[in-house]
């Protein structure tokens, strides 16, 4: 999770998986569409065979790949963010699907973000509505978006302006000479961004400190020895060694102990002191942390 290669690898595997599953199935679906690990299936062999044969068949191919199944209810079935419905003429109708837990909370108008990012939120929701909803559901979806966006602080004038804007014609642009990331400070960094843009340098605006950064974490504190920074280790003679590490304190302490054990004074000043003074005890268990930081150079 979080690795950009994950969806690609998952797709490779699932493509092989589905080819094995469909070729070896005694009864096959009429329609099988897949997006990564979500499938949309039309089954015309009866509900019992779907549950007791096909689903069981899929889950017997590999013990770590187990499918769950959701069947249509009252002629409606959600797939990804689309709600697919049967019409009286047995055609399919499409509208935007939201989970029951969806809160309609989007980037608030009062948030300290660049205006183009806020307009981007409205535009993305509008574009999704146009692409997903068919004509019979589009007006209903747009009305829902107007109410939701107004609840998030946007004016009806701003919303309608984006909704009624025409797509811009794509013009050939020169490749950017570079890219800069600036914290968004209204009236300051946006002006800098315009100057950079005139010089063909792309500007990405990032928010300043978030509220969560001012609050303590609700999670239990981690073992301090898993952090990095500046530490000190005492000797029984009273001398003190002060060192820095960009890995964890725990890893660095184990290294010092190993250098002492393997008689490698050239790798550690602690090992050098201990081997030159065999009657001294290095108090590794009393290691003190002077400063924790994830920035080694600081």
TrEMBL record:
Domain Reverse transcriptase intervals: 1-96
Question: What is a single Pfam family found in this protein's UniProt entry?
Answer: HTH_animal
Q: Out of the domains of life, which is the source?
A: Eukaryota
This protein is called Reverse transcriptase domain-containing protein
PANTHER family (UniProt xref):
GIY-YIG DOMAIN-CONTAINING PROTEIN, REVERSE TRANSCRIPTASE
What the entry lists under InterPro entries is as follows: HTH_animal, RT_dom
According to its UniProt entry, this protein's organism is: Pyrocoelia pectoralis
């Amino acid at each position: 999770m979080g690795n950009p290669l994950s969806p690609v690898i998952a797709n490779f595997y699932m493509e092989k998986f589905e080819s094995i599953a469909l070729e070896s199935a005694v009864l096959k679906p009429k329609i099988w569409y897949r997006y990564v690990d979500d499938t949309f299936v039309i089954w015309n062999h009866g509900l019992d065979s779907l549950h007791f044969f096909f689903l069981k068949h899929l889950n017997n191919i590999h013990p770590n790949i187990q499918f769950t199944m959701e069947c249509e209810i009252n002629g409606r079935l959600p797939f990804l963010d689309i709600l697919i419905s049967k019409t009286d003429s047995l055609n399919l109708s499409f509208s935007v699907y939201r989970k029951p837990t969806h809160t309609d909370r989007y980037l608030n108008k009062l948030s300290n973000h660049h205006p183009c990012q806020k307009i981007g939120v409205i535009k993305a929701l509008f574009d999704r509505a146009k692409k997903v909803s068919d004509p019979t559901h589009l007006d209903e979806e747009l009305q829902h978006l107007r109410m939701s966006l107004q609840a998030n602080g946007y004016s009806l004038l701003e919303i309608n302006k984006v909704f009624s804007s025409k797509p811009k014609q794509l013009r050939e642009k020169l490749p950017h000479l570079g890219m800069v990331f600036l914290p968004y400070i209204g009236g300051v960094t946006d002006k800098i961004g315009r100057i950079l843009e005139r010089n063909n340098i792309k500007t990405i605006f990032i928010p300043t400190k978030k509220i969560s950064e001012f609050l303590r974490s609700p999670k239990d504190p981690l073992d301090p020895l898993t952090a990095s920074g500046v530490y000190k280790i005492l000797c029984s003679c009273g001398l003190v060694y002060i060192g820095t590490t960009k890995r964890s304190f725990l890893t660095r302490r184990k290294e010092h102990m190993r250098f002492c054990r393997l008689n490698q004074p050239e790798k550690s000043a602690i090992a050098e002191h201990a081997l030159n003074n065999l009657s001294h005890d290095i108090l590794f268990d009393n290691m003190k942390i002077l400063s924790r930081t994830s920035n080694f150079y600081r």
